[in-house]
Fold:
Amino acid sequence: MEKKDSLTTEMADKNLLLVESFFESDSAFESDGTDFDELDCSDPLAMSGRCDLHKGLRIEISEQPHTMRQVANIIIALHRFKQTRKVQSTEFTDHELFNIIIENIVEESMGLKVNCESLKTYNKQDRVIQCTVCDGLKKSLVRSQGTPSLLAVTLKGGNSSRSVCINLSTYTTPGCKATKGQPICLKIAQSNLYLACTKESGTSSQPHLILEDMKDEETLKIIEENDGMERFLFFRKVTGDSINTFESVKYPRWFISTSKNESVPVDMCVEEDTSRQKVFSLQDQKITRALLEKYSKR
Structure:
């Protein structure tokens, strides 16, 4: 019995070394240093991407690209195969293989979720859209007189020129996949005024939307979680061709919204508030001249 266990362990060690040496090469098909004979591969088998390591154990090389994470999981699983005392040969039943994969590979995938808890970083992109904005009731956003703020007003006749032009700048999503939409910031064109979602200092009041004069715009190129600049970021989610919502990054579930009444300031509201308009359409979209000049020089 001890001799059989020793032989099984020796076979597993040999198979593991062969697989590790295979993955350490840059490519099984491109590297001149890969010796398929060492993996018991005849030419027809090598061309088809299948190699017999030992009786009962075969490696199949997929033509689909694999990530380093997948390769690492395979190596980790094979190391654990070798250490599993209950397996007495290189031939596994379907049930044994299923249990080993669940115990070893799925466990590693869960461990990698720790990266999603790291601080998020948003990097500003070159993509800038200039547009005007209307709410779901066709009210346009216009500048108020005096205190800088935006009002939602129904414009008639030749008053469409009162609509403010908005520069919509996109940001890269953080490392973890974002499900709330595309991170963006919103700026009044030809000014330093940015839309920001913030609370009054030292209070526990609800968030409000303000226009903030941002003199040092360079600080908005890279925004990190909890650095105080998230107030300028919103998740833009597009439904269909033209329905947009803008959710605050700093205050989740708070959305840019307008009143159903005329000439009321644009503000924030919670997702469940049905008394306010939370959907918008972007009109007269175009790339800003600065970006056109940038690309024309390339």
Notes: Helices lie at 2-24, 43-48, 68-83, 94-111, 289-296. The first helix runs from residue 2 to 24.
